[in-house]
Design a protein that fits this description.
Strand order of the largest sheet: 2-1-4
Low-confidence stretches: 1-20
Mean pLDDT: 83
Strand content: 15-25%
Number of domains: 1
Structural class: alpha+beta
Distance between the termini: 53 Å
Radius of gyration: 20 Å
Helix content: 25-40%
Number of helices: 6
Shape: globular
Order of helices and strands: HEEHEHHEEHEEEEEH
Number of strands: 10
Largest sheet: 3 strands, antiparallel
Length: 259
C-alpha cells in the first residue's frame, strides 16, 4: 500500500514538474530606470528585459545580409557556410500558429574536445545566438528576476536570498521577466531547471551603492545542467556548440511578431 502511494505521489510530482518547465525573455529599448547601477547597460548589452507586448521585435518579412571583405578574408568560405547554417535554422522555424514546442529539446549543447583544447569557438552557434538577440530575445536565465529599483531602507544584508525577500519585493523592487512558452505567464524555470536568486550589492553599505543586481542560480542539481542553457543570450565556451533551438528558444521565437 505504501509503495502504491509513493508511486502515485511521484507521478503527481512529475506531472507538476513538466507542466511549466521553461521560460524565454524578451528584449527592447532601455526604460529610463534601467541604469548601470541596477546592472543594465552592461558591455555587449543591446537592450533591457521587457514585459509581454512591450518588447522590440523585427516586423519585416525579409532581412538582407552580406559579408564584408574582412570577414571573408578571416573566415573564408567555411565561415560563410557556418553563418548561413545559422540563418537556415531561423528560416526553418514554422509559423507561430503551427509551431509545436514538443518538437524541440530541452538541451541543445554538444561538446567538441579538440576544439576546446584549441580554444576554438563555433561560429554557427555564435551567429545563432546573435540573431536571436537582434530579433528580440534576451538571456532568460539572467532575467528570471531582475532589479526594478533598490533602496537600503527596504533591503538589508540579511535579506539577500529570495527566501528572505520581504513582502512586496516583487514587483515593487524586483520584477520577473521570464515567461512560460505556452502560458505566457511568468516562470522561474528555464528548459526544465528551476531557478532562485540572491541579491548582490557593490559599494558602501547604507551610504552609496555602485551596483545592485539579482543573481540567479539553479535549485536543481544536475551534473550536465549547462547543456540546458538556451541559445538566446547565453555565452558559449570554447568547444561547445548547438545544432538548433531549445524549447525555450522556440517558445520565444514563436510569438507572432517573429512571422
Amino acid at each position: 500500500m505504501k509503495r502504491n502511494s509513493f508511486i502515485i505521489q511521484t507521478a503527481l510530482l512529475l506531472a507538476l514538474s513538466v507542466a511549466r518547465v521553461g521560460a524565454f525573455a524578451l528584449q527592447g529599448p532601455y526604460a529610463s530606470w534601467m541604469t548601470p547601477t541596477l546592472a543594465y547597460q552592461q558591455p555587449n548589452d543591446i537592450g533591457g528585459p521587457m514585459d509581454i507586448n512591450e518588447e522590440y521585435r523585427w516586423n519585416v518579412p525579409v532581412v538582407t545580409y552580406a559579408f564584408d571583405q574582412s570577414f571573408l578574408e578571416y573566415f573564408g568560405s567555411n565561415g560563410v557556410a557556418a553563418v548561413e547554417q545559422a540563418i537556415g535554422i531561423v528560416n526553418e522555424l514554422p509559423q507561430a500558429s503551427s509551431i509545436d514546442l514538443a518538437n524541440f529539446p530541452l538541451d541543445a549543447r554538444l561538446f567538441n574536445q579538440f576544439a576546446n583544447a584549441e580554444n576554438q569557438y563555433d561560429l554557427k552557434t555564435a551567429t545563432l545566438g546573435l540573431l536571436l538577440e537582434q530579433m528580440g530575445l534576451a538571456d532568460p536565465i539572467r532575467y528570471v528576476f531582475t532589479m526594478r529599483r533598490f533602496d537600503w531602507n527596504f533591503f538589508n544584508q540579511w535579506l539577500s536570498n529570495e527566501s528572505g525577500w520581504p513582502p512586496g519585493t516583487i514587483p515593487e523592487y524586483i520584477i520577473e521577466r521570464g515567461f512560460d512558452p505556452e502560458e505566457l505567464t511568468t516562470s522561474h524555470y528555464v528548459n526544465g531547471f528551476l531557478f532562485s536568486a540572491r541579491l548582490r550589492v557593490y559599494g558602501v553599505m547604507y551610504s552609496s551603492v555602485d551596483q545592485a543586481e539579482v543573481i540567479e542560480f539553479p535549485l536543481d542539481i544536475y551534473p550536465n545542467a549547462e547543456r540546458f542553457v538556451p541559445v538566446a543570450g547565453a555565452g558559449w565556451p570554447p568547444g561547445e556548440y548547438c545544432q538548433g533551438f531549445t524549447l525555450d528558444d522556440a517558445g520565444g521565437a514563436s510569438l507572432p511578431a517573429f512571422e
